[in-house]
C-alpha cells in the first residue's frame, strides 16, 4: 500500500515538465496499485484470497486446491484487467474523456498543475540527495531474486510449478521467502549505510504490526463464513432465487453487489471477506462456474477499492501524486464506471452462452467503447 507514496514523488516533476495533469498521475498510480496486486498469487493479496477460498472449499468438500482455484479464476478478474489495460490505451492514443479530458486540456493550454480551488493532499517534495546517493540498484533486485529463488526452492520438492500445491504449503513457503528477502535487505542497508540496524528493525516491526489488521480481517472472515454456513444463508438465497432469477445472471449480480459494497465501505478486502463465503456456495449449489463467481467477487471488490473516495488506495494515490483528492476521484470515477459496465456485460455473456473467452471480449469491448466515447466527445465539442 505504500507504493503510491513512493511512485508519486518520483514522477511528479517529470509529469509537470511533460504537461500531464496531476489527476492523470494519480489515476495511473491508482490503476496500477490494487488492480495489479490482486492478480499476483504470491503476494499478500493472493494469499489472503486463497485463504478465503480454501476455507469455503473445505466447508463444501470441494476437491480442488485454493491455488488451482485462484489460477483458473484469473481470466475472470475482468475489472482489474480492464483497469490496468485502459491506462496505456488512453495514454498512448490520447483518448481522454470526461473530467480527465478537462484536466489535461487545463495543463496543456494554461500550464496550471491544479484547478484554482484545488487543495493538494501534500506539497511537492525535494529529493533527499544524501539518501539518493546511498541507494543502490542491488537494494531492489537482490531481495527480489532471493524471494523468488527461495520460493521455488521450497516448493520444488512438492512438484511446483508442474504439480498442484496445497494452499497451506504455498503460504508457508511464501512466508519463509519473504523473511529471507527481508533479512537480505536489512543486511544490504547496513552494508551500504542507508539505514542503521535500529532503523531497519523499526521498519520491519512496523510492517509486521501493519499485518495484524490483515490477520484480524482474515479471522473475522473465517468467523463470518462459519456463521453464514450455520445459518444456511447460501441455501436460503438459492431457494429464494430458484425459479425467480435466472442462474445465468447471478455472476453479474454478484459483481454489482460487490461493487456497491466496496464503493460504500472503501475496502476490497472486507468485500472479499463478506462476498466469497456467499458467492462460492451459491455457485456450487446453482451449478454455476466457481471460477466465474470468484472472478465476479474480485472484480466487484476492486471496483470500489479503485473508485471509492474513502478507499485507502484512492487516498494514497492522491497523496502520492500531490493531487487534490476530490479532483482525482472526479476524473477517475467515469472511467471506473465505464469499465464496470463492460465487466457486467461480459459476465452476463459468459454465463448466458457459456462463452470461454470472456476476457478477450471485454478487452475488445473496452477498446471500442473508449474510441466511441472519444469520437462522440469530439463531435459535441466541434458542434
Which structural traits does this protein have?
383 residues, mainly alpha
Helix-strand string:
HHHHHHHHHHHHHHHHHH
Q: Distance between the terminal alpha carbons, to the nearest Å?
A: 44 Å
Please describe the biggest sheet, giving its number of strands, its sense, and whether it closes into a barrel. none
Q: What value does the average pLDDT take?
A: 84
Helical content stands at over 70%
Rough outline: globular
Determine the structural class based on helices, strands and strand pairing: mainly alpha
Please indicate the percent range of residues in DSSP E strands (runs of 2 or more).
under 5%
**Count of helices?**
18
Q: Any overview of this molecule?
A:
This protein is mostly helical and 383 residues long. 75% of the residues lie in helices and 0% in strands. It is globular. The mean pLDDT is 84.
Topology:
Layout: H1 3-17, H2 22-31, H3 34-37, H4 44-59, H5 66-73, H6 78-93, H7 99-110, H8 129-134, H9 138-155, H10 167-191, H11 197-231, H12 233-241, H13 250-265, H14 268-285, H15 290-307, H16 312-321, H17 325-352, H18 358-382
Helix pairs in contact: 1-2, 1-16, 2-16, 2-17, 4-5, 4-11, 4-14, 5-15, 6-17, 6-18, 7-17, 9-10, 10-11, 11-14, 12-14, 13-14, 13-15, 13-17, 14-15, 15-17, 17-18
